[in-house]
Here is the input.
Amino acid sequence: MSTLSFDEPMVAVEEPKGGRVKATEKRLINCAQVDVNQLMPIKYHWAWEHYMNGCANHWMPTEVAMNQDVEVWRSNKLTDDERLVIKRNLGFFSTAESLVGNNLVLAIFKHVTNAECRQYLLRQAFEEAVHSHTFLYVVESLGLNEGEIFNMYREIPAIASKDRFEMELTAEVLSDGFTTETPAGRQMFLKNLIGYYVIMEGIFFYSGFVMVLSFLRRNLMKGIGEQFQYILRDETVHMNFGIDLINGIKSENPELWTPQFQTEMIERIRHAVELEIAYAEGCLPRGILGLNVEAFRDYVQYIADRRLERIGLPTQYGSANPFPWMSETIDLSKEKNFFETRVTEYQSGGSLSWD
Here is the structure.
């Protein structure tokens, strides 16, 4: 037996024969080799690729100038409905990013026992902190009422409903005595991953990206738009990592993917779609140039079908994409190849070109 000595006692772990970890002995969850972050030999190359993609997209919000946004915000160039869209999105994202970060640090990292996946999770946790910093930076730059923006998760029903939906998943995994050693626990953990990576980052976030990036298409609020483009790139890698993790756990634990569990996940995603449509209604009560609730209903259903396909579940809606211009930023049907198709933009955020 080999043990590590620190200020606090640690549980001893079994050392493999020869004193080295073999790739075949690594597992995504329930692996005994968690005493150190033993990266080599790498077994899950997809996890390391996502880590490298995340590093290549490194940026900080303060690299983006907000002068033009401040000028537009103080002028009469935006209608009240357009201002509502921006503020509601800031209100949702400011809370949602912290929920994702908390779930990563307090729940997912603890139960994912593979070193290269943990390496990516550390990178993702930093990126979530950068995103939270971004919304604070935007609110301060525009001189918005901080209490109004950061309390929307309590005061705006459509935002509160989405946040409660996600917090339920974290509460289950953080409950006393939770373990992935049992089939029920492993299913609960898989449910958490689907909730955060497929629903929160794969569905809830994407409609917000469309709303804000629509202003950038009109050459308005360019600073916020550029920052949302950076966030979209981060979130694309987050989602792709999460889907690979979900599919990997399914492959290593096929007994979890029961017909009943699949039905429950489909219903959960369908419920999330309705929550997101209600959120769009709150953001766009009268619609703005190029955006309305009817289009967002189709869009949310379209991306939900794409997420269902990625984790091996049947599509539910068959809706077309009403915002084909989003493909200029990211082609949803080729998410795993996103970074391969735009390798010239593997630079720090301050030097990226948006031509």
About this structure: The two ends are 58 Å apart (CA to CA). The chain has one domain: 42-344. The chain is about 60% helix and 0% strand. Residues 1-18, 331-355 have pLDDT under 50 and may be disordered.
